[in-house]
Amino acid sequence: MTVRIAAVGDPGHLEDQQSLARARALSRGVAPDLEWSPLTTRRVEGGDLAGFDALWFLSWPEAPEAEGLRRAAWGAHGSGTPVLVSPTEPPAWFVGQARQRAAYRLVAEKRAAEAAALEAGEREPRTYVHQMRGPRYRWWRPLLALAVAVGVWLVSAAVLSVPSLLLVESEEEMLNPLDPWASLSLNLLLAALVPATLVGLWVGFRRSPWRVLSVTGRLRWGWLGWCLLVVTPLWGAYLLVTWFVFDQEVLDRPESWGALLTITLLTTPLQAAGEEVAFRGGLVQGVGAWVRSPLVALALTAALSTATFAAAHGSADPWIVVELGSLAVAGCWLAWRTGGLEAVIVLHVVNNVLIMVTGILLGGLEESYISGETQGSPVSAAMNVVATAVVTAVLLWLARRRGVAPAGWRTPATG
After folding, report:
1. pTM, to two decimals
2. Which stretches of the chain drop beneath a pLDDT of 50?
């Protein structure tokens, strides 16, 4: 540890030079940690005292024009810096105070260096899957984030369920997709996954939870708008083809079709966004923080996201699992390449809204929901996979053109 003592005096004054020389000579053998540095009055007046542990005034400035120097001396004393006025070398008690101050300074410098390193680590570019693997990462943080997110969602679900329990006549009606209150309740419950995930990530990782939206720490509305313009006609054409392939018929509209249509248009986007933020966002980034390799983290989280997403829909039919898995895998890949959830949120929103609106206006709304009894087919699964692959390829092409995704088919966006 080096103790820096500033000797404030007149560099051209012989007595000041001799006092400084004697102090250096006396400490050279018995106190090599002392560093005596001459300091001009102008630097003291300017407050340039950083790095000094004590101020030794060889003479007290009494001239009227030295008011600034006196104020600087009193300011240093008030901040805890030892100040001595003496024409001879400082006594031992003053040097002891300087050593104590030096110890405090070293601790402060160490903390400042650690804070700077932490801040530099926070700014280090990362892939989407590693956004939560920052300088504060510890193995237990994903578990804490998951526990907090589940807890927040359960509390939100309990609060949101109260109005529905009061307004819906029976438990059966709570699960009836044709009941407006049941539809609204389900959408809001799934939309609550957004704040639950954000709170879980913030508490668990102590990093900005908005990184779950994109590597820029925000939702990129311009990019989301481009995705909406591209996905809507392509996915609409795919659903139109399936309508004719499976020879679907126009049925009677639900009794409350107006209310259902309003609820769909207003809350289904929130429901789809909630699922994406939870399954392709929080889950992917939380588990991805455990894995050092970004590519291994991508593969692992894509498989886990696919499994949990399919399980959450309740159907064990293999063809339904393939359809759900195609969206999950495409979503993880889009998030990896574009660095955000905007593209897959749009894909999910457009799919759900178009299917729900078609089911409300043309009948067959009950079949729009996936349940434990839902059955798929090889043809339907194959068409879904092809459509998802085509839309994903178009979105990635657009992302490269717009500068959202880097060149190279597997190069991830970072931020």
Report:
1. 0.80
2. none
